[in-house]
Amino acid sequence: MTITYTPIGRVRSPYESPADVDHDAVDETTGEIVLDGEYEAGLEGIEEFSHVVVFAQLDEIDEYRLTARPPHADDLAVGVFATRSPHRPNPLAQTTVELRERDGATLHVRGLDLVDGTPIVDVKPYVGSIDDEDASFGWLQSLRE
């Protein structure tokens, strides 16, 4: 089976490479999600949401690992599917960002952790759930405490 996605836009970000992403400062990192003009009408109404979920193809990742060492978790090694590591068999990213403004086909966002030029494959409004307070955060829980 082959799955093919056509990018609908690109990221504009201060990060030039994956190594440049500062995980300590990413909450304040601003950038833009720029969709191709033909998709602008698909953004109608998105400015009413405070946050959006961005799906991207991590096109600079050329290898995967089945285990990962999460940032800030010193000696912890877990399976890649239990992390947000970019080194995955299918290097797709899902990131939730604050939507600060929409200008045509451009979304101005904060909290961006993607590299400049990263292809965007989808954008969706973030819709919290009543179940959020009951969510479990696995190994991350111990880092929060």
Automatic annotation (TrEMBL):
The keyword S-adenosyl-L-methionine applies. CDD domains: UPF0066 (cd09281). InterPro entries: TrmO-like_N, UPF0066_cons_site, YaeB-like, YaeB-like_sf, YaeB_N_sf. It comes from the Archaea. Pfam families: TrmO_N. Coiled coil: none annotated. The keyword DNA-binding does not apply. Residues 5-135 form the TsaA-like domain. Residues 1-22 are annotated as: Disordered. Keywords: S-adenosyl-L-methionine. Belongs to the tRNA methyltransferase O family. NCBIfam families: tRNA_TsaA. This is tRNA (N6-threonylcarbamoyladenosine(37)-N6)-methyltransferase TrmO. It comes from Halovivax cerinus.
